[in-house]
Design a protein that fits this description.
This protein has 467 residues and is an alpha/beta fold. 46% of the residues lie in helices and 17% in strands. A six-stranded mixed β-sheet has the order 4-5-15-10-11-14. A five-stranded parallel β-sheet has the order 9-6-7-8-16, sandwiched between helices. The two termini are 36 Å apart. Bound molecules: pyridoxal-5'-phosphate.
């Protein structure tokens, strides 16, 4: 299995390299040179596979010879042993839509599905080389908690998580800051998530800094995360009773990682008709789908904070595909983005985007109203992100018998109690272990949105040896 960067196809890497480096040194994102394909017959033969078995089947097609088969199986089984649902991912039907519960992991959002695997993969690879690495990652609320849970008490890894101060929910924050293992560093940045993401990207682009701390990253651009997310598209297809139907999947979207995984699943052979990019009012992707103009503006906070994003990092991967995998075209568009703060897709490129995706944004009022309606008719409590996905699918209103409809539930409602109470006048159900985090001591450091200052902080902590 060979990989290269979206900005330079000449240099080839293997899975271990791209997974440990996360971001290519030319600033591009890693993608496979050739995607593994599956026929519908091969896919249907996996009908009775458990989530873990299916995971193994997908991962082995991407990981080359990084892991012997038995070890890869062990990594996957350990990863999903901490999930609260035996099936890992559950489906429930609301009206004619399959809601996909992706939040049964230890930190109650879909990010656990990929992050747990990453934690065990790092442990395995670094356990062999005895190298110590420092992971630096930005979070809009859920990645950080998932990463901290996956890397706590891992021997060869320190992890630094940058979250925007006061811009994540209290539950989201406490899931990160109450884990007190000595290799965990929480930094609250006085800025937005986009600021945090920019800081991390600048650190990656500073080769001296990057090498000085053996830096790595587990942001949603890490290809291994995409692979783990491909799995559940296959899984839900096989769980429904109508394999002859094409799928429409609505995905609450921020950084474009989860919905991009669906696009890859489709390229691999899964019968997906359309992927819905559902967003809140931070809707630059909806605008881009209409006009081809990709133009980030400033983030406007919402009740779905994990999607308060104006720079969708994984979008570069889809750009690479729709411009016929031209690395020079990607470089030119990304230069426009850097210099003019926007880029314009050609009509041809836009058409290819529209063939695969639709996009709709949902207002704050509609989001609360949707939570209320779903509760009134079913007694299910869905979180604000999931409500956006659900409402977008309803509004799309393209219901046909030949299609089956899915909506991702990306987070557990107890992560956003204020919005739930506002919508249904009732508390969300709260798992027992979550109640405990409100009593625990928190540990985090508040820092100014200042690249040099934060680099210095990280360098100091990274170099102090810990046992
Ligand atoms: C991260 C996140 C999203 C957005 O996912 P992307 O892969 O960044 O598009 C949506 N909902 C929740 C709850 C999240 O944590």
């Amino acid at each position: 299995m060979q990989y290269y960067s979206t900005r330079n196809k000449k240099k080839i890497y293997n899975f271990e390299e791209i997974f440990l480096n996360a971001l290519a040194s030319d600033g591009g994102l890693y993608v496979p040179k050739l995607l593994p394909k599956m026929t519908l017959k091969e896919i249907k033969e996996m009908k009775n596979f458990s989530f873990q078995e299916l995971s193994y089947e997908i991962f082995k097609r991407f990981t080359g010879d990084t892991f012997p088969a038995a070890d890869l199986r062990k990594i996957i089984n350990k990863s999903y042993s901490v999930f609260r649902s035996k099936k890992i991912i559950d489906l429930k039907k609301i009206d004619n839509i399959f809601c996909v519960e992706l939040y049964h992991g230890p930190t109650l959002a879909f990010k656990d599905v990929a992050m747990q695997v990453l934690g065990h993969m790092y442990d395995y690879v670094l356990g062999i080389s005895k190298n110590k690495m420092n992971l630096v990652t930005a979070t809009s609320g859920d990645t950080g908690a998932a990463a901290i849970d996956a890397f706590k008490n891992k021997k060869y890894v320190n992890i630094f998580v940058l979250h925007p101060e006061n811009k994540v929910s209290e539950t989201q924050r406490r899931l990160m800051t109450t884990i007190l293992d000595p290799n965990i560093y929480n930094i609250a940045v006085k800025g937005t998530f986009d600021d945090c993401q920019y800081l991390v990207k600048e650190m990656f682009n500073d080769k001296n800094f990057r090498n000085s701390i053996q830096m790595s990253g587990v942001n949603s651009i890490n290809w291994a995360r995409i692979v783990a997310q491909i799995v559940y598209y296959f899984f839900i297809y096989l769980q429904q009773e109508h394999p002859e139907k094409q799928m429409v999947v609505s995905v609450p979207t921020g950084n474009f990682g989860d919905v991009y995984a669906g696009y890859i699943a489709k390229q691999m052979g899964l019968p997906i008709e359309k992927l819905m990019i559902a967003s809140n009012h931070n809707n630059l992707l909806e605008k881009c789908l209409q006009t081809g103009l990709y133009k980030p503006s400033t983030v406007n906070p919402s009740i779905s904070p994990s999607m308060d994003i104006q720079v969708a990092s994984n979008f570069e991967r889809i750009v690479f595909d729709i411009c016929e995998q031209s690395d020079s075209r990607v470089v030119s568009l990304m230069n426009d983005l850097k210099e003019k703060k926007e880029f314009q897709l050609s009509n041809e490129e836009l058409k290819k985007l529209q063939e695969n995706f639709v996009a709709l944004s949902i207002s704050e009022d509609e989001t609360l109203q949707t939570i209320k309606e779903v509760y009134a008719s079913t007694k299910f409590v869905i979180d604000p992100h999931s409500a956006i996905g659900f409402k977008a699918l309803k509004k799309y209103n393209n219901f046909k018998d030949s299609l089956s409809y899915f909506c991702f539930e990306t987070a557990h409602p107890c992560k956003f109690p204020e919005s739930i109470i506002k919508a249904i006048n009732n508390d969300p159900p709260i798992p027992e272990f979550v109640k405990n985090i409100y009593k625990k001591k928190e540990n985090f450091t508040v820092l100014q949105n200042d690249l040099e200052l934060i680099k210095k902080y990280i360098q100091n902590k990274a170099s102090s040896p810990q046992s």
